[in-house]
UniProtKB/TrEMBL annotation:
InterPro entries cross-referenced by the UniProt entry: RNA_pol_sigma-70-like (IPR039425), RNA_pol_sigma-70_dom (IPR014284), RNA_pol_sigma70_bacteroid (IPR014327), RNA_pol_sigma70_r2 (IPR007627), RNA_pol_sigma70_r4_t2 (IPR013249), RNA_pol_sigma_r2 (IPR013325), RNA_pol_sigma_r3/r4-like (IPR013324), WH-like_DNA-bd_sf (IPR036388)
Entry keyword annotation includes Cytoplasm: no
Membrane-spanning residues: none
Protein name in the entry: RNA polymerase sigma-70 factor
Keywords: Sigma factor, Transcription, Transcription regulation
Domain RNA polymerase sigma-70 region: 28-93
Organism taxonomic ancestry: Bacteria, Pseudomonadati, Bacteroidota, Sphingobacteriia, Sphingobacteriales
Domain RNA polymerase sigma factor 70 region 4 type stretches: 126-176
Protein family per UniProt: Belongs to the sigma-70 factor family. ECF subfamily.
């Protein structure tokens, strides 16, 4: 990776950022921003959204800066985070009813075999089906959290239940989904 040749040891930089050093954070941004924006643009072809994703990535880094010293490979961490944010953005677009080709999704590209694409789609269908089989209130809270991207507080206000109840429903949903999908996912 080109970045590792330019700045191979991030340990000192990460330590400084984790202590709240603004200048070190700016250096981190300057080192990675151009390569990351190109990577994001290769996946979504929308400059404004790509910049939003990059901004969200670095905002998240800053908010969680105290955990940065635990990162083993900073480039891998940043690219994995980008991948997650890109997929999250595509999910939001799908929820809004916008048409997105399955080949637009990062994990489903030309480098992935058709068999793996089919398996991926199958797993997604299984998970969606299992979500529909959750208990009614649990399903409602889970969808508001994971599909509508509402915070626990927003869900609490909307459903007139406590935040701890929201958290319990989400944890229950995750536990049930793990349990019910385990047998299918082991197959893959």
């Amino acid at each position: 990776m080109k970045i590792e040749k330019e700045f191979p040891d991030y340990t000192l930089l990460l330590e400084k950022v984790s202590r709240g050093d603004d200048f070190a954070f700016t250096q981190l941004y300057d080192i990675f921003a151009n390569d990351l924006i190109r990577h994001i643009m290769s996946k979504i072809q929308d400059e404004e959204k790509a910049e939003d994703i990059l901004h969200d990535l670095f905002l998240s880094l800053w908010k969680n800066r105290q955990n940065l010293i635990n990162i083993q490979s900073l480039p891998s961490y940043l690219y994995s985070s980008c991948r997650y944010l890109i997929l999250n953005n595509l999910r939001k677009e799908l929820l809004k009813g916008k048409s997105i080709s399955i080949t637009d999704i990062d994990v489903i590209n030309e480098e992935v075999s058709i068999e793996d694409r089919i398996h991926y789609r199958y797993v997604i269908d299984i998970v969606e089906n299992e979500i529909e089989n959750l208990p009614q209130k649990c399903r409602e809270v889970f969808k508001l959290s994971r599909q509508n991207y509402l915070s626990n507080k927003e869900i609490s206000n909307q459903l007139n239940i406590s935040e701890s109840t929201v958290e319990k429903h989400i944890n229950k949903a995750i536990r049930l989904l793990r349990s019910s999908t385990k047998r299918f996912l082991l197959f893959f």
